[in-house]
Amino acid sequence: MTEGVPQLPSQRALGDLVTDVMRDMITGGRFEPGQHLKESELADALDVSRGPIRQALARLEQEGHVEIRRHRGAFISTLTRTDVEEVHTLRGAIERLAASRACTRLDATGFAELDAVLDEMKSVSTPIAPEDAARLDLRFHDIIYTYSQHGRVQRVWESIRGQVTVFLRARNASFPDFGQVGHSEHKELRDALALADPRAAEDAIDKHILGAYERLKRLDLPDR
Length: 224
Hints:
The protein is 67% helix and 4% strand. The protein contains nine helices and three strands, in the order H-E-H-H-E-E-H-H-H-H-H-H. It is mainly alpha-helical. The chain has two domains: 63 residues, Winged helix-like DNA-binding domain superfamily/Winged helix DNA-binding domain (Arc Repressor Mutant, subunit A); 137 residues, Up-down Bundle (Four Helix Bundle (Hemerythrin (Met), subunit A)). Helix 4 runs antiparallel to helix 9, helix 5 packs antiparallel against helix 6 and helix 8 runs antiparallel to helix 9. It comes from Microlunatus soli.
């Protein structure tokens, strides 16, 4: 449990720090779906008391990473078809808006940021680790949300970003084709944004995120 756990800096609230570390551990695949998270073990591993652990688990439950079961404790959430459908439809709604706004607000600096991520995608070795593929994917989309210049949309994105990370990791673990399609699919989206046409940007986003959703639907997931 303690191997590879980062040191916690002291300048931020401990509960927030523990939440961030545990979220990274979950989205990075350190725990298995359905795994029981024991407060005592987590506290020992992170060298904190149980209080910040409980705060973190409550936050992570709100974000959908953890299920807290009465009298049984906390468990890593199991990916279900309902989860995938709900997050996909919500992401589709907010990202269409983000892209339609970003396409008229992206400047030379913004496109340079997108192109830098595309260059990394193009140079990845095959096969790429699922968490690394998810990280590159989300970096690209983070830029779109930043240039949407819409604070509320960005906050909604941050609230589901962790779950999207889990979904993308599952998608890349089950369909290890990011090395073949990651660059080309995101390049197509980048070129649509460069048209500065909100309708074209919306259509490109719809097509882009549908691919990941269709792959996830092919997994043998429980309904709920």
